Amino acid sequence: MNKIPQDQLLEKSGTAAGLMDQLRSADAPDYQKLRALVGRADVRKSLNPGAKFMVAGVLAPRWDGFNIAGKPLLSCTDEHE
């Protein structure tokens, strides 16, 4: 997802849709592997804001909203300060 232009990151269509389907088939419904990866600051730092948003959208309903949506979104703002 990090290599897809941010304006093309759509969960239901385009290139990202196939990646999201692969992610769901490999790690859903709890997304334990993805949660562990995104819980690491070095992984979050390497993701562009669009990829962070996609990951947060997948995990936020299933995990503590701050841990997955808050941290990536806060790290987006940290980059621009």
Q: Summarize this, please?
A:
The protein has 81 residues and is mostly helical.
What can you see in these coordinates?
It is globular and about 25 Å long. It is 64% helix and 0% strand. With 81 residues, it is mostly helical.
Key terms:
single chain, 5 helices, 81 residues, globular, 0% strand, mainly alpha
By secondary-structure content and strand pairing, the structural class works out as mainly alpha
End-to-end C-alpha gap: 24 Å
Overall average pLDDT:
77
Give the helix tally: 5
Helix content class: 55-70%
Shape: globular
> How would a textbook summarize the main sheet?
none
What is the strand and helix layout of this fold?
Layout: H1 15-27, H2 32-38, H3 41-46, H4 49-59, H5 65-79
Helix pairs in contact: 4-5
